[in-house]
């Protein structure tokens, strides 16, 4: 696929790649590709839909929705919850036609959001760049379909694509969409933070986001759930080292190699696999401060780059990629759907320019493939401590760190760049000194 995208991006190559590039930028071809992809998804889900069953995390979602609809026990309002209260909206919406149709309605919601995200990518910027980004985004959705179709990131990731695409033309609408996504899963807050720091329309973004959040707080307070509105923060902070998190890698290998006191176990309360071993408590305790330090450093680099005249779009995208990747790398919680935090930013980067974003685009495709290889394909062997499965997960985690390194390196280059206004006098002074030296020596530029 990377070769295909390279061919679509190239100019002056043989006629066949150019023809393919033109063909891929036809609206009906893109629409046909989208329809074919989601028809494939529907065929795969059809036995589950016909049986009235659910897959992935949807059994939990459906149980929470039924509990709320039947006995008025609402997660995040009546009790503490692992998610922000806004996650109730898609979770309950999928149950409105009854438990038996939950899988179908969830699929229809994700399909509608995917369609909107592909459309906004394809119609923004130049056609070639927009369509290339849309095809790449669909490729990632295909590779990561086990989580893109069956977890909340299947809702928030396309929302983020839509929001980031609209930020230049409709900043208030974009902020509204990103704020809504943040109240479903917290991670889009990193993108809002980047926009507030680096975007010229920061006040529109900030005021809209704060207004939306105030409305959510007022609604939850009216429903009597104010004491639980931040429950997701404490629920997350109480977790140990989760199996798939990059920071867990040393303890994963301790368990695989049989180091005394090291083992993989299931946290029944949170339905997650965690790893214990020597020093795990200290490691879990320092992840939050380490993440905070990483965020502060990245925001500082963004501010410096902004003051030195970095292009706004490029800075927003690189800064956003650095922030969301840092949230993954320094997080003691790790799940396969977290890779869908990273992919939307890269899709926008591809739309901004394939040549500049080729490296993270290819990296992301490999990361997505390894992630799906780990979950669901090799997940049971991984939990059992299989070295091969652990090696694949370790490679995936290493590539995520490489992704963070790429983004941080680009951000560092932007921050080090000498502003044009400062560089001009230096150049004039250097040229003047050179002219004086030439006059003194009698040398000339003429051959």
Detailed description of the structure:
The protein is globular. A hairpin with a 4-residue loop joins strand 2 and strand 3. The chain has 447 residues and is an all-alpha fold. Strands 1-3-2 form a three-stranded antiparallel sheet. The protein has one domain. Helix 7 packs parallel to helix 18 (354-377), helix 15 runs parallel beside helix 20 (387-416) and helix 16 (312-329) runs antiparallel to helix 20. Helices cover 71% and strands 3% of the residues. The chain starts with a helix and ends in a 6-residue tail after the last helix. It is built from 21 helices and three strands.
Task: Please tag this protein with its features.
single chain, 447 residues, mainly alpha, three-stranded antiparallel beta sheet, 21 helices, 3 strands, globular, disordered C terminus
Could you give the topology of this structure?
Layout: H1 2-9, H2 15-24, H3 27-50, H4 58-71, H5 88-93, H6 102-123, H7 127-143, H8 145-148, H9 153-166, H10 171-182, H11 189-198, H12 202-222, H13 231-237, E1 241-242, H14 249-256, E2 263-267, E3 272-276, H15 280-307, H16 312-329, H17 339-352, H18 354-377, H19 379-383, H20 387-416, H21 420-441
Antiparallel strand pairs: 1-3, 2-3
């Amino acid at each position: 696929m990377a070769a295909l995208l390279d061919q679509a991006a190239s100019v002056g190559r043989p006629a066949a790649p150019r023809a393919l590039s033109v063909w891929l930028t036809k609206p009906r071809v893109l629409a046909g590709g989208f329809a074919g992809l989601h028809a494939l998804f529907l065929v795969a889900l059809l036995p589950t839909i016909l049986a009235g069953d659910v897959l992935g995390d949807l059994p939990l979602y459906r149980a929470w929705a039924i509990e709320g609809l039947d006995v008025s026990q609402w997660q995040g309002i009546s009790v503490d919850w692992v998610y922000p209260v806004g996650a109730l909206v898609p979770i309950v919406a999928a149950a409105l036609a009854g438990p038996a149709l939950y899988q179908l309605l969830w699929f229809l919601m994700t399909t509608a959001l995917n369609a909107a995200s592909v459309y906004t990518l394809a119609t923004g910027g130049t056609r070639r760049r927009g369509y290339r980004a849309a095809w790449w985004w669909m490729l990632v959705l295909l590779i990561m379909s086990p989580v893109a179709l069956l977890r909340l990131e299947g809702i928030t990731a396309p929302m983020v694509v839509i929001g980031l695409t609209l930020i230049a033309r409709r900043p208030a609408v974009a902020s509204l969409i990103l704020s809504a996504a943040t109240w479903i899963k917290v991670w889009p807050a990193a993108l809002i933070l980047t926009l507030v720091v680096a975007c010229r329309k920061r006040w529109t973004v900030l005021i809209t986001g704060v207004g939306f959040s105030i409305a959510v707080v007022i609604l939850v307070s009216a429903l009597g759930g104010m004491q639980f509105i931040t429950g997701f923060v404490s629920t997350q902070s109480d977790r140990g080292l989760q199996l798939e998190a990059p920071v867990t890698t040393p303890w994963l290998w301790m368990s695989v190699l049989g180091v005394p006191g090291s083992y993989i176990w299931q946290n029944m309360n949170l339905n997650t696999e965690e790893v214990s071993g020597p020093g795990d408590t200290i490691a879990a305790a320092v992840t939050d401060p380490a993440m905070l330090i990483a965020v502060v450093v990245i925001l500082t680099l963004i501010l410096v780059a902004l003051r030195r005249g970095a292009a706004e779009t490029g800075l927003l995208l690189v800064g956003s990629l650095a922030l969301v990747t840092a949230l993954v790398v320094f997080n003691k919680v790790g799940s396969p759907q977290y890779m869908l935090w990273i992919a939307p930013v890269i899709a926008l980067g591809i739309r901004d320019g394939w040549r500049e974003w080729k490296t993270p685009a290819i990296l992301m495709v490999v990361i997505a493939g390894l992630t799906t290889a780990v979950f669901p394909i090799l997940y049971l062997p991984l939990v059992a401590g299989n070295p091969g499965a652990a090696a694949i997960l370790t490679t995936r985690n290493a590539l995520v760190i490489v992704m963070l390194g790429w983004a941080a390196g680009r951000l560092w280059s932007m921050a080090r760049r000498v502003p044009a206004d400062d560089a001009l006098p230096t150049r004039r002074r250097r040229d003047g000194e050179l002219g004086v030296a030439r006059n003194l020596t009698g040398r000339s530029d003429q051959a």
